[in-house]
Structure formats: structure tokens, C-alpha cells
Amino acid sequence: MGKIIAIANQKGGVGKTTTSINLAASLGVLEKKVLLIDADPQANATSGLGIDVENVEKGTYQLLEHTASAKEVIISTNSPNLDLIPAHIDLVAIEIELVDKKNRESMLKKAIIDLKKDYDFILIDCAPSLGLLTLNALTAADSVMIPIQCEYFALEGLGKLLNTVKSVQKIHNQNLDIEGLLLTMYDSRLRLSNQVVDEVKKHFDEMVFKTIIQRNVRLSEAPSYGESIISYDAGSKGANNYLSLAQELIEKNQ
After folding, report:
1. How many helices (H) and strands (E) does the chain have?
2. Which of 15, 102, 120, 183 gives a 20 to 30 Å CA spacing to 215?
């Protein structure tokens, strides 16, 4: 039975999509069957895996509208063992369209519940907001992974996100766990980076992943070629970081 993990933080630019793509690809390389769901209207996880967003006819939008089944919207990728439910800019409209629907926060959960038996991990790349799309992801998920940038404002907004998680647990999904906090964009040369790491570990201790994602030029280049870091440069620091994270996640969930 697979595990559904939402990768969420309402702050933009913290490495959510980078983590979604590269963790999914790393898990696939480690012979886990993985599905990545792009639940962000920017559709960066889709283009980052080499799929032309303009040509996406069915994806997360149709899934949430229930006009297409999960099986109809899944496409395969060039990464081993990795499937994708792509997104398109039309996903922007879904928040308005779902607003007066009954059980609107459970649309994604209903649509993907049967997929758990087909995959080891289902990852959801969330939009940088705490709107209805992210609420759907958190309601559908077994746990949430929170990427935190090693920057000055890193902890700002984290409280808000944790409060959202608490209210989702209370109202929509009492089984929602926090998978862990993931420190991203770490630069060992910067005192600030080290301060953020110390601060996060001091406050959240066991909740923080041991693996830290370091700043790496190859990581930011890979999406422009429509590739994960694993296929773009398997020897890079970024690839090593994400393989290590995938290994940690697998061990944590054995």
C-alpha cells in the first residue's frame, strides 16, 4: 500500500518543485514505483520532467473536476519507475469552480484513493499558497514534507503552515502526519545558512530530515532541459543529496 506525501509550503522559492521532481526521480532509481501529481497551476513539475505543458489535454484539473479518472490522466515519464499527473495553467480556475461544491476539499482524495495500491509513493507538488488546491493535497495525503530555505525569512510563515496542518488534522484528515522538515538551498560558506540550520534543529529536532539539500548550480539548470538532476548530472552534489533524501525516506517508512 503506497504512501501519499504532499510537499507544501506557502512561501514560494523554497525548493518545493525541485524537491518534488528530484525526490520522485531518486525514489524511482531506487526501484520504488512513484507517481508525481502536479497540483500547482505554474505546472513547473510537468515542464521540469520534459512534458510540453501546452500539449497537456488531461491532468490535475480534469481529475479535480471529476471529468476524467486518475487512470486517464496519468502519463509516463523518461525517468525510470516514475509516472506523472501533469498540470496546465487552466488549474488556476479550479479554486473558483470548486468553491460551492460539496466536500470541495476532498476532491483529490476521492480521485486518487484507489491509486495507493499501484505505487510505493505518491508525491503531490503543491502550489505556493494555502488555498483550496493545497487544502485538497493535505486532505488526500498521509503526510506532509515541508521544504525550508536556509535564508533569513525561513521560519516566517512556518507557524502559519503548521496551524493549517493542525486545522486540516482536526477537520478533514485526522491521520495527516508531518513527514519532516527539509532544509534546502544550504550554503556552508554562509554564517546565516548555518544559523538557520541550528535554529530549525533546535525548535523541531526529530522532525528535521538529516539530509540537507545544498545550493547547486546543476540543480537549477536541470529543469530547463526537462530533466531531473538524476538524469541531467548523476554525479552532482544535488543528485547525491536527493538520493540520500530518498534513501532516508524509504528507511523511515519501512
Report:
1. 12, 7
2. 120
